[in-house]
Amino acid sequence: MSTFYRGTIESILSSCITVWGGSCTDYNRKALQRIVNHSCERCKSSSSQFVQPPAIWEELLQEPQWPRYHSAPPDSKNENCGIRAEFIGQVSGFPGLACGGGVNESEDKTSSFVLHRLLSRGLSVVAMSQSGEKGKVRPAELMEEYSAAPPSQFTEAAGYVGFANLPNQVHRKSVKKGFEFTLMVVGESGLGKSTLINSLFLTDLYPERYIPGAAEKIERTVQIEASTVEIEERGVKLRLTVVDTPGYGDAINSQDCFKTIIQYIDNQFERYLHDESGLNRRHIVDNRVHCCFYFISPFGHGLKPLDVEFMKAIHSKVNIVPVIAKADTLTLKERDRLKRRILDEISEHGIRIYQLPDADSDEDEEFKEQTRVLKASIPFAVIGSNQLIEVKGKKIRGRLYPWGVVEVENPEHNDFLKLRTMLVTHMQDLQEVTQDLHYENFRSERLKRAGRAVEEEGMDKDQILLEKEAELRRMQQMIAQMQAQMKMKPGDD
Amino acid sequence: MRRQKYMTDAVPPEVRPKPAVPAKPPHVAPPPIPSHPAPTLSGASVRGSGGSTLLGYIGIDTIIEQMRKKTMKTGFDFNIMVVGQSGLGKSTLVNTLFKSQVSRKNSDWGREEKIPKTVEIKSVSHVIEEGGVKMKLTITDTPGFGDQINNDNCWEPISKFVNEQYEKYLKEEVNIARKKRIPDTRVHCCLYFIAPTGHSLRPLDIEFMKHLSRSVNLIPVIAKSDTLTPEEKSEFKQRVRKELEVCGIEVYPQKEFDDDIEDKSDNDKIREVMPFAVVGSDKEYQVNSKRVLGRKTAWGIVEVENLNHCEFSLLRDFIIRSHLQDLKEVTHNIHYETYRAKRLNDNGGLHPISTAADTQESNL
């Protein structure tokens, strides 16, 4: 059981446990629950070096909702079981999975297939069986057996070729390669952008921050600051670049403040285009901006003219996710009113913000519901904070006011969790849309422009000739007129 | 500059309330025997010695009572201007200050109106009464300030408006046949709303305050301050105060106009708390079996009049309960006089620029 303990503790430490009980009995379930409880208590009491959202622990210590799947003949339910488990893992945002399955002989094929799929995706799998009953199969052996088993083991099933494992291989390769993501944050100064980024990624991206006074701001123009940080979680590497835009909207005359930003975005596209058309295309570094969080001030009555102009200028270049900053200024009614107002103004001005893709029809009801909830909450009203405050004996992140405590991760207080979920589950989609839509638009524009430039040179010559001729004719007319006038004058005299 | 104190009294039939400017209430308790008679109405300052001692009670101190009665009968007017970006809660704050729906929002403006393209000046007047004292309150709003992309010179319409009011008063004063009571539309107090970013003032704030602190009493206020935790609040205030000092902006109460030690100490106390961090609300909620004005959120109720939550009560006491008269006096004696001196110097004479209306009147 040491593997099991290790797996459980690892999952707890990465703050995720999702359990899929495929044909497990009550006994299995209770045993697993007991083990998880013990591990939780141990982890809690032993160290508090890591900041973990205790909300998940509390959930575990109560009765979690364990989806139950009744036993089914191996052939029909293989795919579904595996896919469901995967989605539960993905949807919770963290690819760690503890799977408890009672492995008795009749379910052997199902469970083993599922286990194999999960293992091959790099998810940590914990298998549990009815120890002692039907005696022989024990978890440690199971794990070893199935992690070592090649896919060919399953060719015994009639008509099964095996290319269904292709996605697994792709997945494994990309996990090894790591992901890159560039996030741009734009908004007036003092809206809490840096605090929000720090809260989202649980890091401190701006250790020595110098906030300039107003007199200095008068002279400043918009700058672009990019900071990169490498985050690793469960074997998945993410190279996250956050592009900050200090000075945006500060000046009295903000006419030029988005030129710098647009230039930066175009430069990244240009560089990628150049690399893509180059000879050595192995290691193209993707610095294109995949997503832009646009911070809207909660103090106004909707979008300001500056917001509208800026979003109109970049909605064809980057995915815009509008975010209402410092949402603890607003009561619930004010928040709803503001959201509605902003959505109305966005559609009124024809601004295209990033649309979450609808959940496919064959996906989990839970996932569909989650997508619906996310879509309904745009723009997200968020609060950021990295200060730990003690509330009812628990340490949570929040802001302490004389009249109450605002919790960052409480979905009733703000949409921070929704924003994080959206970002994490749709990172891939954001990159895809950037690649397929915005980059392709840019590329076609660029190449068209380059083509037109060559044509225009030829055309120019003809045009110049025509113009010169027209000028000559005009001059001749003028001279004729002057001559006529001169002739008349001596006549008058 | 010595402050001159005097009274205007006559009432033109149409305009009922008047700007009576009585003497500052003296800081003394009326003693039985005043030790020297007040030569001017600069208050019976009994502290001083010298002068003849009276042998009995005359009743000079009843003049205070007479003035009070007169003020109550005639009422007085007060003009306040609110400036700030849209959505900072200006109208709500004014409603909260005067505990009635006096702002522009309720007379002709809906919440869904669009931001105007240039700065507009809109005034709304109401007469409110309390304890037998009538006040004609005029609130001037400036929608469109600071909301555009290009906010260059957006303070100019406001500066022009303030000067226009001085000009109007000057014209009336210079007339040969003066009205008994000149209607006072000069702006007595300008509340400037600072956005609670928590960082520092913005360049627009500095520019506006530089241009207007010399011609009107400017009181900066931190709007929607329920965004800031107490530590952030005090840090922000310190930074704002430092920046105002560095840029040489004198907000009301100006240090140079403090009369005596008591004034100075009172005002110093106020200056330490300025700018006031306020929250406005016109909705009432039940808190501990009391009805209080506040904002209800999922994590608690922000009480507007609770000193631990925000400084609204301090602002209200400051403007209305203790310095209302002083605001009017400083406007009249200092800002208006400065404007007048500049105008007369520029013209080199007593005659103001004649407009059509002027020539008509002087021809009468």
How is this structure best summarized?
The complex is a heterodimer of chains A (493) and B (364). Chain A is α/β, with parallel strands linked by helices and 493 residues long.
What's the SSE blueprint?
The complex is a heterodimer of chains A (493) and B (364).
Chain A (H helix, E strand, L loop, with lengths): L1 H12 L5 E4 L3 H21 L7 H8 L6 E2 L4 H18 L6 E4 L6 H13 L18 H10 L17 H12 L1 E8 L6 H9 L12 H6 L5 E9 L2 E9 L12 H20 L14 E6 L8 H10 L5 E5 L7 H17 L16 H12 L3 E2 L6 E4 L2 E8 L2 E4 L8 H10 L1 H66 L1
Parallel strand pairs in A: 1-2, 1-3, 4-6, 4-7, 7-8, 8-9
Antiparallel strand pairs in A: 5-6, 10-11, 11-12
Chain B lengths: L61 H13 L1 E8 L6 H8 L6 H4 L14 E9 L2 E9 L14 H19 L14 E6 L8 H10 L5 E5 L7 H17 L14 H13 L2 E2 L6 E4 L2 E8 L2 E4 L8 H11 L1 H24 L8 H8 L1
Parallel strand pairs in B: 1-3, 1-4, 4-5, 5-6
Antiparallel strand pairs in B: 2-3, 7-8, 8-9
Helix pairs in contact in B: 8-9
| H-E order of chain A | HEHHEHEHHHEHHEEHEHEHHEEEEHH
Strand order of the largest sheet of chain A: 5-6-4-7-8-9
End-to-end separation of chain B: 37 Å
Shape of chain B: globular
Strand content of chain A: 5-15%
Overall spatial form of chain A:
extended
Class from helix and strand fractions of chain B: alpha/beta
Which strand-content bin applies to the residues of chain B?
15-25%
Q: In which range does the helix fraction of chain A lie?
A: 40-55%
Number of strands of chain A: 12
Tally of helical runs of chain B: 10
Q: How would you describe the oligomerization state of the chains in this entry?
A: heterodimer
Radius of gyration of chain B: 22 Å
- Head-to-tail CA distance between termini of chain A: 125 Å
Estimated structural class of chain A = alpha/beta
Task: Report the major sheet of chain A.
Answer: 6 strands, mixed
User: What kind of sheet is the major sheet of chain B?
Assistant: 6 strands, mixed
Radius of gyration of chain A: 31 Å
What low-confidence regions of chain A span 5 or more consecutive residues with pLDDT below 50?
14-23, 47-111, 118-140, 145-156
